[in-house]
Specification:
8-stranded mixed beta sheet
Length: 182
């Protein structure tokens, strides 16, 4: 059984868990943002085909159902447009969970990633009893991404060497953390 809700309200956005029926809107968002996604995201080395994206959505749906990982689409309720994705990923070891996010290129600078990251951290602390720390990992060169944990009051834990997996990555990441409120 999934430990997080299917929909999370994130200020003026709604986060909807990944479903295969998001495919067409996801393809549109990735296509519109591919240049930027290719720069930072290893999964965007080439434009994903609809078949590949459908497999990713189905795997995300299964991981959500199994309580292993929680991936959401960022939806603007007024326009019903898919404007990005965000999720909670157990990559950081026991007691920690990592937030990842991306926003459609024509929607950046509007606070969407900040709202999603805030709502996901709150959801992690509310719904996942074993999570005591939330992390956001950014590349040193990705200032826009690093601005989000800074705005949300995360502290910079420090740099980390990381594999260079996408053209914009430097091989040096920054680890941002926030602890469960007392």
């Amino acid at each position: 059984m999934a430990a997080l809700p299917d929909t999370v309200v994130a200020g003026y956005l709604e986060l909807h868990r990944w479903r295969p029926d998001h495919l067409d809107r996801l393809q549109d968002a990735v296509k519109a943002s591919f240049t930027e996604l290719h720069r930072w995201m290893p999964w965007a080395e080439t434009m994903p085909t609809p078949v590949e994206q459908l497999e990713v959505l189905r795997a995300g749906e299964a991981a959500f159902d199994d309580g292993r990982e929680w991936s959401y689409m960022l939806i603007e309720p007024d326009s019903d447009q898919l404007v990005g994705a965000a999720g909670l990923h157990p990559r950081s070891g026991p007691g920690s969970i990592e937030i990842g996010y991306w926003v459609r290129t024509d929607r950046t600078g509007r606070g969407h990633a900040t709202a999603a990251a805030k709502a996901l951290a709150e959801s992690a602390f509310t719904c996942l009893a074993d999570v005591h720390r939330v992390e956001i990992r950014t590349d040193r060169a990705n200032g826009a991404s690093a601005a989000i944990p800074r705005k949300l009051g995360y502290r910079l834990l420090g740099p980390e060497a990381r594999e260079h997996l996408a053209p914009g990555q430097t091989g040096e990441g920054l680890i941002w953390v926030i602890d469960r409120p007392s």
